[in-house]
Write a structure and sequence with these properties.
Elements: H1 3-32, H2 37-56, H3 61-86, H4 93-104, H5 109-127, H6 129-135, H7 144-172, H8 192-208, H9 219-230, H10 234-245, H11 247-255
Helix pairs in contact: 1-2, 1-5, 2-3, 2-5, 3-6, 3-7, 6-8, 7-8, 8-9
Amino acid sequence: MSLAGDAFRLLVPGTILVLLLMSALWALHLRLRNASIVDVGWAAGLGLLAVLYSAFGTGWEVRRALVGAVGGVWAFRLARHLHLRIRGRPEEGRYVALREAWTKAGRNVPASFLAFFLAQGLLDVLLSWPLFLAARNPRPSLSLSEIAGILLWLGSLVGESAADAQLARFKANPANAGRVCRDGLWNLSRHPNYFFEWLVWCAFALFALDAPYGVTSLVSPALMLFFLLRVTGIPATEAQALRSKGEEYRRYQREVSAFVPFLRRP
């Protein structure tokens, strides 16, 4: 089937699926008054798209199964981690700040959050492009770039999981309240979870590179890097950390690399 045909058959229902998911979570957030749930939905939406492409793609069956595995395992692990992080806790500071800013600006806050939730769903569809391309690749064998992508994915998944676990253990200790985590990977990068997450997207692009139109998959990690470094990732997270931790976090900024481990040391 042509690219346009596969796009209509998979991307259209995929878009509807994630927008319905994000709409349901937006309605739930109104009752909870906690927009942090949007992050869970963003991760879960990507997992749903990976499973959809795996089940209904037109490519080689083994590759389609791998698409569902690498996309689904990473996304649903992240969704579970994010859910455990926010469950039973107040709304994260970055969303509190966003809510306050919209209120001061006189905007309709529920409608603004609806647009925000839906935008995250559309971002899911855009970022899932490498998985879509890989799922329609008919070549009946794995290329070197695909094998490299799987190995990079595995290493990145281990790194991101380790970073999340180290931060979770740190926060679970009441004695660390208000302190900056410098345990393990967090002493090498201020955002090792974001760094390894970005490597996951590089792995997805590698896995799709030999597919028809595979070079366009490079847009996905480039876009993710832009969002992590300039938009919703590091800027929002560090603004909240400065509000809550003050001078200790400023010292952390001076001494530890923002993104790439070891890039800047004391």
